[in-house]
Amino acid sequence: MNYTPRQIVEELDKYIIGQAKAKRAVAIALRNRYRRSRLPKELREEITPKNIIMRGPTGVGKTEIARRLARLVKAPFIKIEATKYTEVGYVGRDVESMIRDLVEVSVRMVKDEQAHEVEQKVAPIVEKKLVDAITDTRRASDIETNKDTVLEDLRAGKLENENIEISVLDTPKPMIAVGGPEISLGSMFDGLMPQKRKKRKMTVARAREVLTSEECDKIIDKDNVNAEAIRRAEEEGIIFIDEIDKIIGGAGGSNNQDVSREGVQRDILPIVEGSTVSTKYGNVKTDFILFIASGAFHVSNIEDMIPELQGRFPIRVELENLTKDDFKRILSETKNAVTLQYASILKVDNIDLKFTEDALDEIAEMAAAENETSENIGARRLHTIMEALLEDISFNASGDHPMLEVKVDRAYVQNAFKETKKKFDLKKFVL
Ligand SMILES: Nc1ncnc2c1ncn2[C@@H]1O[C@H](COP(=O)(O)OP(=O)(O)OP(=O)(O)O)[C@@H](O)[C@H]1O
Ligand SMILES: [Mg+2]
To answer: Which CATH number characterizes residue 73's domain?
Structure first.
């Protein structure tokens, strides 16, 4: 992860329109981690991340920025809702579970990476086991067969859907949650209990997956994986705390609810400040995890947060409301633009969807207008409009015709929303 701040912003620009300030802030925070990692150990220990609060209306890209950032640098990332947590001692999730969740993500990442590497190595073993299982299953039902032809057919991909019986590890139920911290019975007894195997029926394709993962598990050193996963969670982990404003009591008056919200803030504090949380993979230090908090802050202010917690989020960025021009760009310019998504999804059913420039203008304009007159839901409005706009085509496309070009232009959009538009104009009038 040696992206410069400029490169990070460039990458984010491919997915998120506008919000330059927020992009800069996260880019700097990320690069600072890299800079820190290059320092001598004594100095490194002194430098903690500068956590960020993103403040802005709903649907303008807060979550999306954090998510893309994590994916870009392949950092362990989780998004949590602050409102999900309750003070220690109350029913609900305790705040430490966010660290356990982060480590889970990290373990999965490291495992996937390593599995990728060893998959090639185990392929011949898996192939041999498949051949054995196929011949055994066939013979069990008195079908004559021999391994050479099976191998040939298997390699030619002819047997993928054949049902076979293989013996697989009988894995115990993974998790039990007893209110408080979760422990996995499975791993507690790892190595203590003999591993049971049991016969299961499945297709060859599925059996290949199961056997591959079993064989990979044998080669991959679990302790190494866990150690690397913990290191990554500690040094590179990003926790996105959504709806932080909802655990801040509004200005004035303190009722019971405010008190318990403040309790959650107090519980979160040590985690953000740096503490050690025990997980089933080992202890995790939270000192260098990057926290990005986000909220609309309609009724509460950042200043209403308990001061200690405020101090832990020194960087504050405002996200802008999206304009009509932004909407147009979001519709067509981003890599995951909705228009592209619908086009590729409908191509499966032989519809070649094309949007004209003026159709995009029209949709963007509608989105902006509707956000103004009814609830402002930001870019999410585009999804609701697009869904309604293409409802008819989506329903009627069946694929049993040659490729059909459908051009969506301004007239098409206006026509599709004739009825809604009338209501909408009326509403504007009444307001
Ligand atoms: N600036 C933007 N550029 C491109 N797409 C955007 C932008 N803002 C929002 N979107 C799209 O809108 C949807 C909602 O965005 P996101 O989840 O980031 O909202 P949010 O700001 O986190 O809102 P909330 O406060 O409700 O959590 C996503 O599908 C996202 O891709
Ligand atoms: Mg969000």
So the answer is: 3.40.50.300
